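Re: duplicated header lines in exported structure tokens

Our pipeline writes sequence and tokens for each protein into one text file. With two proteins the header for the second block appears twice in some exports. Here is an export where it did not happen, for reference. First protein block:
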Amino acid sequence: MEGLRRVWSYGKLIWTADADADDESIDASQTTDSWERMTFYTGAADQLPDPDMEAFFGVGNTPAYRHRSGVFIKSLVCAGGDQLPLLNFEVVQHATISPDRDTWLLMTLNSSPVDQSDYAHSAVASGDVAITSDARFGAGGLAGSKASANKLTITPSASRPVASNEPFCFEVSTKISNTGDNDGNHFFAAGPITVGSFEETMYVALDAPLGSGNIEFPILPGWNDIAVDRNSSGTLVIRRNGTAVYSGTHSAAFSVANVVLLGTTNNDTADTVNVDNVRITFGKQLHDDDYQVVEVSDGTTGLVTPVDQTLEDAVTQILQRTGLLGASDFDVSAFDSKTVRGLSINQVTTARAVLEIFCSGYLAHLTEGDQIIGGYRGSSSVVTIPYEDMGASEADPIAEPLPIRRSNDIEQASRVTVKYLNALKDYQTGAEAGERLITESTSDSVTEIALALTPAEAKKLADVATMDIAVGLLSIGPINVTRKYAGVEVNDVVLLVNSDESTYRVRVTKITDSGLIRTLECVLDDATIVNSAAATDENYTSTSLVRNSSPTVTELFDGPILRDADNDAGFYVMQNGGEKWPGGTLRLMPDGATLSTITERAIFGTCSTTLADWTGPRIFDEVSTVTVDVGSGELSSSTRDAILNDQSINAYAIGVDGRWELGQFKTASLISTGVYILSGLLRGSRGTEWAMTGHTSGETFLLLQAAGMRRVPMETGQLGIERTYRGVTLGRQLDTADDELFTNMGVGLKPFSPFDVRATRDSGDITLTWQRRSRLSTRTIGPLGISIPLGESVEAYSIDIYDDNTYTTVVRTLTSTTTSVEYSSADQTTDFGSPQATVYVGVYQLSAQVGRGTELQAAA
């Protein structure tokens, strides 16, 4: 095999090296998060073991799998954390491999350079960007020169030899000029380094010390079309083919040691490249977690253009690989007119099995005689056998020389479905059917062919199979003939003439020789069905775009429960990642356990204005507005009646962790992409009226809808403990997401504050009463009467008595198991010196899990 062209995961294209793919798809493939490294092995005769496998199993214990193609994937991301994804690979046997064209990548060095005090420095050349953190090698240190048309030779100085296994990266730090563009502002990037091995981390460990020897690097054609300029104001501009692809302001101390440019173009001017100054960084690993490369085992990388392969080529290779046949032992030249689009291989199989697939898929046959001869159905007849030549026998005469029987139509399938790999739709399983319209049969027959076909090709197979059933209702033979017909072979078409001069076209399926008699088993053969046109829909599109999934943005929401089923110690998680986001998981660190999986995009963002205080009753706030930015999300308006009838419509939360106000909005006015002004606010929902004041700008906005939101369960013993979470995009590595610290305080279990505190006095004693609320669904109207679930294991309250209306100093705390409590005259005298005309109280309902709920402060 010569090239790996495309990779699909669950039918979605995730990697491509197709020469027809766009630049963004190539870049996305090289920076995929689906694995750390993928290496395609061609199966060459000198193929070496994979280095990671060899490191694990040991030198001498790891097979190289020579003469067998394969793909090695390191750190494959598993679906859901532990389930292997279903991957499909398109491997091309004959292909043209070309360098990656017009691709570039800006990379950052992750580690700091080692001490380079022993390195010789040279002066900064004119037009170069100042280097402050890495050594410069010129005439006083390592000398660089162009050794040949395709090599750049770097000679280590005697004072600084290159040690064995010492990582290094290579970069021309100043201009590269050619006869066509000598502006003195070009950079050169090393690309695939041929010394040692091309590692996935983009550095090379040398096999032996070089001392004063040479290090050689390839110069690919046209790499001088990446230009870097920095003007006096410190603006760094990177251009590719004259178009700016990066622009940023940097200080005068900006160091080119911190960037590496990779790229190729189609400008074939390698012979004119001149290098002015060269920089090599020793002791530093050049690495970026977001950069990946697919390496062919012979050290080449590039884009794949498939070369069409005929059925003749494919069959010839299979026959020769058996090791039993030479070129003179078979003739399959008749197969040169058909193109093999692809063959599905999911297990080791035999050559015969593959040839049978080809024959069934292309209506072909292979006949074994002096040679193995290939041919197609629908060919011309080789001989006509008259009625008098049939019925040959060495014993008693045969009663009927040409037996003809009719089968029961209802026992045969009325519909034949061919399942195949749709070559026009990324090899996804397709189905084409042929039907017999005039039949009483209702049965179906399904045939699966492991070939890549067009829908028209599959439709023809289905039509042929259907007509074979119709024609096969009339069975003919077997017939006995003499050795006069010794030249007839299996798969030959012959014409049989009956006693009434009617002629039957048949195809020989089996021949049995016994003495001087040959017995031919035949089936009727209709050439017209093989050559008929198959009409079907071929309006399919093959996927060519690869787009890396965006990172997951996660919001962890510890607020009131939104439905009765969530009445537990858990919290809510909401995730989004923009239009390219495939979904995400919430992972608990450090073990990475998956807590939830979300595939719909939640809607959340930030408030760019401050939501005003609201101290009014539970009615619509028609005065206040708030501007929110929800990015790629969309908000819509609703009606007053709809909101009053359904608490989930346009429900929102605004605030920060530990202080959320919930509500609903009527109107969402779009002012720019993703930015809305919300008005007509029904505020303080779900017991959050205490949070209707004190808002600030920049608070978080959450649209509380089922899509994109999940409940994460927890035990009450885990409340109040800070834990580390990561929101990981589906298909990405765990380490691509950042840690997020979060402490769940179990707000969802907190009882709502009571309401309607009243006081009655009798001889100085005060009886305080109130009404309780419930976080669970309530019923206040209807024939079944009022129902306000308790929501707690027991009913209990705590009542604080404050010294004044500032509600800061508690002088006494009372408890009750009902919605009333007595504050005696004697206790008032103890607390205040005399019975009080007005007392200031704070009433809490108690939870057995989290203690006090939300406080109601009132004067009574």
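Second protein block, exported in the same file:
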Amino acid sequence: MQATKPAVRSAVIILGMHRSGTSALTRLVNLCGWQAPKTLMQPSEANETGHWESIPIVRINNQILSAFDRQWADPKPIPEGWMASAEIARFRDAAFEAIAGEFGNADRIVIKDPRLSHLLPFWADVLDDMGVAIRVLIASRNPLEIVRSLRKRDGMKQNHGLLLWQSHMLSAEYHSRPFPRALIHYDDLLDDWLQSLSTAMSNAGEPIEIDDAVAARIADFLSPRHRHVRISSDVALESNDLATPFQNLYLALHNSSAEFAETDFDRLRLNWLTAWEKRSEGPGASQFAGELPVKFVQQSRKATKTGRDDEALSLARKAIDADPNIARHHHYLGRLLIKAGMFDEAVLAFARAIALYPRSAEYHHDHADTLRRIGRIDEAIIAARGAVECNPDHAEYELHLGKLLSAQAHFEEAERSFSAALEHGGYSSQFVLPFAALLRRLGKLDQLEAMLHGYTDAEPADFIPHAEMAETLLALGRPGDAFEAQSEAASLASAEIGLDSVPDDATFLHDAVADAQSMKGTKRRDALLTVLAWWRAWCLATAICDDHSDNADAIPGDGIWPPELCPGPLSIPKVTAAEPEHNRPLISVLIPVFNVAEPRWLRECLDSLLAEAAGTQDFEIVVVDDASTDRTAREVSTAYGSQISYVRNDENLGLLQNHNRCLELARGEFVHILHQDDLVYRGFYSAMIGPMQKDDSLVAAFARTRMIDGDGAFASEQPCIGRTAGPLEDFETMIAGRQLVLFPSIVVRRSAYREVGGFSPSSTFAFDWEMWSRIGTAGRVWFDPSILCAHRVHAKSATNSLDAVERLTDGIRIASENAIRTQSPDPKDILSVAINRLLAREWRAVIRQASARPEPEIEEKMWEILVGESCTQEFRAEFLALICDT
């Protein structure tokens, strides 16, 4: 194809005005053997065969022009001396990287960008340093054709287009003088590309020979159908539409090919510079800079619709360059930047939009959401408040603000925002569920129940509010009412996925997998899981309760899942009395420990106890060390001197038996087991023990608990099951539905522990839930709705080490024991809602796990419990793909 291989690297630089054939010329040179850039702008409606421009090089050129207050559509000359300015030096490294990255070590390269007409000295300097020789081809076209094309593409006015053409062509001619060059006319290229291209390349010092294969490719590429406007040169030279300066320049170009009458061009250039000194004084941009933005945005939107995202972003930037004072264009750019994952730059774009037009709620909202994405929540709250101030009746803006406020624990304001969102947006899951989560977090379940009644009334066919109601009623200790709500939720969810009623076998699962397309969507997935969890819960509860009805000594769960998951009847150890009986303290606080997770947590725990015990002899505080392998527990405890007792077991007893060891060591009338990472607040013991001292029928008292994280920061608050302090009616039934009592919150009479026995070592996860249920059989239980203690939630917790199978099976087993213990005429109603909650929780965990790992490994046993039957790996994969596709 080429006659000889060059001795040095060479670059053919294509100069000329936009719409003058520079793209076509570049492609022809590329097909003749000169390597095009790797990162090309995508073809567009205005240039279907491609722009053949390097994205990195164009980006640098835009930045250089911007540094001198110019952009591509401004015909005003760049200030004299720009190459010697300090500004230009900062672009050199990026230019070197762009050339190396786009072309590698190719011997022959072709570079095109109309901006190079102005910036050739900069790139020539860079290429020279890289040992690349420069050849220049200047594309020339009838200016009337160009301005008509620009009017169609960009909405550019004729005078603007002619001034821009004049600027590009005079700059291209002037800056190309040091290099071998040729001018090639667009008409000649289309009429006889072989002759015109061969002549031009030879005149530029790069003679070519084109074989038949290359010729065929060029002929296929260079089609006259891509030429949308044609005006003869004679018309242009005689037209009244072309002022004398433009006619003179076109005539000079028309008469040039290999030879340029530089004296004529010098005169034209001088007149051009003089005219601009009068037209636009000073170094700043001209008035033409802002004439094209709307057209760019329109083209950008079209590019976005057809997936040309890079082009869309480039066009949006051009709109900003054309006029940086249009707020909506900054906002549009911000949205494109979000799509491209360029969040920091998007934040700046939205901020500029707001600065230009601060009354747009949409601008504030998008600014807030982008700040949220990059973790700048406090700033996001300020922006979200701005959106609400601009449009206080917009439900989604209030909702967004509420979510941000809730994340930062600004609960009162969050509650107001969620309430306003619900008022403006009406009852739908979009507005109800985040509000429900906040009310649960704050323990305001009576308020939540009222809201959910409104939701069910407004949307009677929606399963979501009924499922939420069931969860709320369970938390309120009303499993019977929860059963009715969950049954209704399952019935409505069945209808959502096309079933006539709640199924009685697993056929519906296989049908769902087989017809996965019809199950797409988050709501249908949630409906499927609602039906699945309730169906399985009812099956398990029925089997367990029927077995017990037939045989009161039957082990709950025996025969339902493998024997290793049901190790035998629940064993209850006796609690022996601590000696001596005299001189007992009123309160024994026992702290079971093993290998203290964080010494500061234990210190905070002990400090909170001592603050309560100050000035009284009624306390004993004992740290019970289960043969830790380090000395942390001993060192922390003994540092408090006689205020804290430290007892170390001779051997490791394990988590459960160390709790029972605590019960054996307790000497006080009232016993409080407090874990090493939890806290009590002032007034806890008086609120718990006072009622029991006055009423012997009370065997235990508990309060609400605040959840905190490892640093002690607020996480959530336990639900409130009653508005006023007092004894709970039918505590056994209340707690059978779900765990209501956390360890730090409950104080128990020692005599009650002796009556009902210790913690069952047969349980591994839900042993405390089982214990509190048994405590309820010994007498009445007092509840105080005040927040009087804190439970620390962290990854180092002992129960977090249990796997999902162990948590689920132990939870179902203890739920079974608790439900049967209630002596309810039909305990399977209570048991079914308890199991449903456990199954739903594990399904959520499965979804998170499956979303995090392409092929999650879930044990066969787990699948048998969750799905109700053994299933193949193929079915598992298909089912997980279905339910995890949100």
